Amino acid sequence: MLKLKLSSKFYNQIAINKTIKDYSSLGDIKFIKQGDYFVIHFNKVKSNIIKIIADEFGNYVLAQMIKNK
Amino acid sequence: MKKNKTNYEFILNSSIYSLSVVLGASYLFINKVYISLDGDPKKKIKVFFKSKPETSIDEFKKIIGDFKNELLNYSLREQIVKSNQKVREIIIAQALLSPLYDTFQDFVEESDEKDETEDPLGITKTWEEHFGKKEKLSVKKNKNAKT
Lengths: 69, 147
Description:
The structure holds 2 protein chains of 2 kinds. By secondary structure, chain A is an alpha+beta fold. Chain A has helices spanning 13-22, 53-67, and strands at 2-7, 28-34, 37-43. By secondary structure, chain B is of the alpha+beta class. In chain B, strands 1-2-4-3 form a 4-stranded antiparallel sheet, with helices on one face. The termini of chain B are far apart.
């Protein structure tokens, strides 16, 4: 299973939720909070995007945070 | 500072580069590289770069350099914004209040004009104009008669 860890000191939950909503068509994406990190789990992701989805997701969350600042 | 051909990371002192500066600079490059942040926003900010599949090695190096320049650019902008904040507030307040100020000035001018022509309580009149000279003389005569 693919995982992405984002620091809760930098990334906020609103931006993560928005990104999950926008990426919902690309796979089954969920997150849990573990200490100072949001751990995002990617399931049922298409094989052609599996290499980039986590990194693209991280960039998208960053963009959402800046937009909503 | 760690680096290889497709990954690069460095640590920024947040007393020099604030989080808003790092976020602002990052936003300009997220279409070219993958960027993630870690560390402590109040002490040290770790910035991780990962090359996108379509980005060449030379281009990646250039992006890292441009990012560092952009950090300086954003921090300078932030300093200018802070130093000019009061001036901007005054200018905005003046712009917003100027229509009200003009209305107030018109009102004051109108009321000043009325004051010059009208004297309903007769404040501007002299004693003689109020009571006349003859009355004063008669009062003096009465006083002399009593003594």
